[in-house]
UniProtKB/TrEMBL annotation, chain A:
Domain text: The DELLA motif is required for its GA-induced degradation.
Record's protein name: DELLA protein
Biased composition (Low complexity): 1-24
Region entry VHIID, spans: 239-304
Originating species: Hibiscus trionum
From TrEMBL, chain B:
Hydrolase among keywords: yes
Name of the protein in question: GA INSENSITIVE DWARF1C
GO CC annotation: cytoplasm; nucleus
Organism domain of life: Eukaryota
Main location: nucleus
Family according to the record: Belongs to the 'GDXG' lipolytic enzyme family.
Record GO biological process: floral organ morphogenesis; fruit morphogenesis; gibberellic acid mediated signaling pathway; positive regulation of gibberellic acid mediated signaling pathway; raffinose family oligosaccharide biosynthetic process
Keyword Nucleus: yes
Pfam family, one: Abhydrolase_3
Active-site residues (renumbered): S177
Organism encoding this protein: Hibiscus trionum (Flower of an hour)
PROSITE patterns according to UniProt: LIPASE_GDXG_HIS (PS01173), LIPASE_GDXG_SER (PS01174)
PANTHER family found in the cross-reference section: ARYLACETAMIDE DEACETYLASE (PTHR23024), GIBBERELLIN RECEPTOR GID1C (PTHR23024:SF492)
Keywords for this protein: Gibberellin signaling pathway, Hydrolase, Nucleus, Receptor
């Protein structure tokens, strides 16, 4: 048995937090008000309160004893358990303990000293050995401003590629300063350089789009936002090809569906509200999964929100009919309703006709960020929408967003982040060889780039924010996280292996899942539930169990 | 004998998790391993004077490496286009780091290793290149060594890593556990191929052999590590059918080769007194000495495995000082 010294933790927290020297993610907002997180473990990716360390240690010991005593049970545990949120070490250990038959004995008073082989009193619990300086191990999680982060994955080599990036950033800096004539001359230089750069992958590939976007900003002004519109029909086509060419949307749908399925377990009347129906690509899989669930399918209502169709077609209804056909073929009682709205903030909850008896799932795939632009109104749209979502008391709200910081106020910062985000995304697309999926997918992405770079105000709708910011906002709006577990992770990883090229990586991040290219997460999926009372200070212990 | 509580919790947590991942039939629960591993992204914005970015060195094998550089005083915020800006000092050590994990666990972007590499930057005033080598059991010997070799060649051929003094890249190899083992084998290949490695740093390097040594028997199961799990990892890494006297595992054993008369880097070998494989590590040191190679042994009597992961013990500080001196001695 290894003895540990439990007495050497300073109680009070220091403000410096200098021990956490890594680029670790900021803590979830729920921990903001708590203090006394062990700084060294935080640097290792684990959030444990210093005051709980001893308890966690005891439970680890108990688990170990149990493991030694019944190894067969332990391998059962290993293969069957679903794990959640490993960063919350205390909860993870507790959940393992509760799954495992606990041994009747308590930690022994006497233990064997491994060196002398003599029995000694187990005084590890009370030792206050202080021959080690214990400097600033604990850190305070006050309202820290979110760490500035810029994640770059590069394979870029050529000098001309590097020069192009340099010029792009310098040009963007000129734009930020308002030096239009200098910016314009850079644009000309860059057009020239572009002809000599390898445009097959990485920065070279995406540079052309950024040069275009900068041109638009300079020459057409920042209100020229109609580019991001296109027609709804066009957007749907591009979206569909983006769906086919790379796994980001499939991952989003798949992960959300899995969470929704679990949330609906045991409920017979369920209602899914989709914030952006598109071609309804997400729903056949859910309908089929519900059809197959033990105990039989529920009555499923789907409300799909989408832009109004011009020329008299009711495209929402057409999609609804197709889905209804599918549902009928697998014996799932199904009802569809389309809600046509140009903007999500124009939707009012009464339009959704939620029945108090049904269990509601709200599904938002890349939509919430569009609500972050505020005009001069008092309430920004995001607050209004989150508020009425909450009033629906959904069983689950699934949120998928681009994992990027594209809503920074400073133009250069935003530009820099976008340059790296989209060059990584383009790099990941390289593996796709299917046309026209790939070409159209690239246009889809290009439209996002153009919106991020060349638009402002209400025209700029692509206001992506990283997961950490969404956590803060959603927690503050009265939602608590429902953690996505190792089962969801495994299935997502396996799907990727089956359908996509190597290089795509799923990661677990404080109860959420991200999909990225190598070490750069690009899309983040999370699940939430409305807190019924006032927002809690921190997640209730059993947050991973939906329903 | 007593370890700080937070270290105990950290290492015990790893031990528990690793037990869940190793299957008796020799397979590995990779999905759960990746789910549980705490990772951090690279950050081109300096934190505590160090910034990092990832480079895809080899697309074919998806070989990624994380580069850590010091932020210079004049340019506290590096222009992102200048991540690969040439190093400016007369002599800049480049430390190629191989993370541990017994060949099966962890990654270059694991939080514990990201933290360690960031420390090494300041300590050695170096650029650190952390190699995300392929792991067992999916990728057995010699994949890890091949990836190390690929990374070494890549580092050696970067103009921006050349020290001004002689327009050469000043390369050191460092690693813990399996990473230490990789250091030895990559160094060997480097020197044989004419690429100079200036020094090897091995932290609790993973070596073994067929026979059971005294330390293995005495310390089996006492300090987080068991013989059984050591055996499992060797079976997962070594070619099927090979035993632990394979030269990868036992470089100075019956199937090893003599390094006598061969140019080999000076070595700094750190051995933890409570590590059950210390007899093999000490034998490695002896093997180097017998072959006339320069080696310094740091035997930390009261240290357990992983003591260098958290800066909360004297051993940690001792080691870091020695590493700093070891690298600085060429500047």
């Amino acid at each position: 048995m290894v003895l540990y010294d439990s007495g050497r933790l300073a109680g009070s927290c220091s403000g410096s937090g200098s021990s956490s020297s890594s680029s670790s993610k900021p803590p979830p907002p729920s921990l903001q008000k708590q203090q006394d997180i062990d700084g060294l473990l935080a640097g290792a990716g684990y959030k444990v309160r210093s005051s709980e360390l001893r308890k966690v240690a005891q439970r680890l010991e108990r688990l170990e004893t149990a493991m030694v005593n019944s190894p067969a049970d332990f391998s059962q545990l290993a293969s069957d358990t679903i794990h959640y949120n490993p960063s919350d070490l205390a909860s993870w250990v507790d959940s393992l303990l509760s799954e495992f038959a606990q041994p009747p004995t308590c930690p022994s008073e006497f233990i064997m000293d491994p060196v002398t082989n003599q029995t000694v009193v187990n005084d590890a619990w009370t030792t206050t050995n202080s021959n080690m300086p214990q400097v600033h191990q604990n850190i305070c999680y006050e309202q820290q401003s979110l760490n500035n982060q810029l994640t770059v994955v590069t394979a870029m080599e050529e000098d001309s590629g590097i020069r192009l990036v340099h010029m792009l950033l310098t040009c963007a800096e000129c734009v930020q300063r308002g030096d239009i004539s200098l910016a314009t001359s850079f644009l000309e230089d860059m057009q020239g350089l572009l002809t000599r750069v390898n445009t097959v992958c990485g920065i070279g590939k995406v540079a052309g789009h950024f040069i275009d976007a900068l041109s638009r900003r300079i020459f057409q002004g920042i209100g020229g936002g109609s580019i991001s519109g296109g027609s709804a029909y066009e957007n749907e086509i591009l979206y569909h090809h983006f769906y086919e060419a790379c796994p980001y949307l499939k991952f989003a749908h798949f992960t959300a569906n899995q969470a929704i399925l679990e949330a609906f377990d045991g409920h017979d009347c369920v209602h899914v509200v989709d914030f952006n129906l598109m071609h309804g690509l997400q729903w056949p899989a859910l309908i089929q999964a519900l059809a197959l669930r033990p105990g039989g399918p529920p009555l499923l209502r789907l409300t799909g929100i989408g832009p109004p169709s011009p020329d008299g077609r009711d495209s929402l209804r057409e999609i609804g009919l197709r889905l209804a056909e599918l549902a009928r073929s697998v014996n799932v009682r199904f009802a569809f309703r389309g809600v046509a709205a140009s903007r999500l903030e124009d939707v009012k909850p009464w339009m959704l006709q939620v029945n108090p008896k049904e269990s509601v799932a709200v599904n938002s795939i890349m939509q919430l960020h569009r609500l972050l632009g505020s005009d001069s109104n008092l309430n920004s749209p995001i607050e209004t929408v989150l508020s009425w979502i909450r009033s629906l008391n959904p069983k689950i709200m699934t949120v998928v967003e681009q994992e990027a910081n594209h809503n920074q106020p400073g133009f250069l910062d935003r530009f820099t982040e976008a340059l790296h985000y989209y060059s990584t995304m383009f790099d990941s697309l390289e593996a796709c060889t299917v046309q026209p999926d790939k070409a159209l997918a690239e246009i889809h992405i290009q439209r996002e780039i153009t919106n991020v770079v060349s638009c402002e105000g209400s025209a700029r709708v692509e206001r992506h924010q990283p997961l950490a910011k969404w956590r803060t906002r959603l927690s503050g709006a009265g939602f608590r996280p429902l953690h996505l577990g190792s089962n969801a992770y495994k299935q997502a990883s396996m799907l990727l292996t089956l359908f996509s090229a190597e290089g795509y990586v799923v990661e677990e991040n404080d109860g959420c899942l991200t999909l990225g290219w190598h070490s750069r997460p690009l899309i983040a999926a999370s699940a939430w539930q409305a807190v019924s009372d006032a927002p809690a200070e921190f997640p209730a212990p059993d947050t991973h169990r939906p329903g | 004998m007593v370890v700080p509580l937070n270290t105990w919790v950290l290492i015990s947590n790893f031990k528990l998790a690793y037990n869940l991942l190793r299957r008796p039939d020799g397979t590995f629960n990779r999905h759960l391993a990746e789910f549980l591993d705490r990772k951090v992204p690279a950050n081109a914005i300096p934190v505590d004077g160090v910034f990092s970015f990832d480079v895809l060195i080899d697309r074919g094998t998806s070989l990624l490496s994380r580069i850590y550089r010091p932020a210079t005083a004049e340019e506290p915020l590096p222009n992102v286009a200048e991540l690969e800006k040439p190093v400016t000092d007369e002599v800049v050590p480049v430390v190629i780091f191989f993370h541990g994990g017994s060949f099966a666990h962890s990654s270059a972007n694991s939080a514990i290793y990201d933290t360690l590499c960031r420390r090494l930057v300041g300590l050695c005033k170096a650029v650190v290149v952390s190699v995300n080598y392929r792991r067992a059991p999916e990728n057995r010997y010699p994949c890890a060594y091949d990836d190390g070799w690929t990374a070494l060649k890549w580092v050696n051929s970067r103009p921006w890593l050349q020290s001004k003094k002689d327009s050469k890249v000043h390369i050191y190899l460092a690693g813990d556990s399996s990473g230490g083992n990789i250091v030895h084998h990559v160094a060997l290949r480097a020197m044989e191929s004419g690429i100079d490695v200036l020094g090897n740093i091995l932290l609790n390097p993973m070596f073994g052999g067929q026979e059971r040594t005294e330390s293995e028997e005495r310390l089996d199961g006492k300090y987080f590590v068991t013989l059984r799990d050591r055996d499992w990892y060797w079976r997962a890494y070594l070619p099927e059918g090979e035993n632990r006297d394979h030269h990868a595992c036992n470089p100075f054993g019956p199937n090893g080769r003599s390094l006598e008369g061969i140019r080999f880097p000076k070595s700094l070998v750190v051995v933890a007194g409570l590590d059950l494989i210390q007899d093999w590590q000490l034998a490695y040191v002896e093997g180097l000495k017998k072959a006339g190679q320069e080696v310094k042994l740091l035997y930390m009597e009261q240290a357990t495995i992983g003591f260098y992961l958290l800066p909360n013990n004297n051993h940690f500080h001792t080691i870091m000082d020695e590493i700093s001196k070891f690298v600085a001695s060429d500047c």
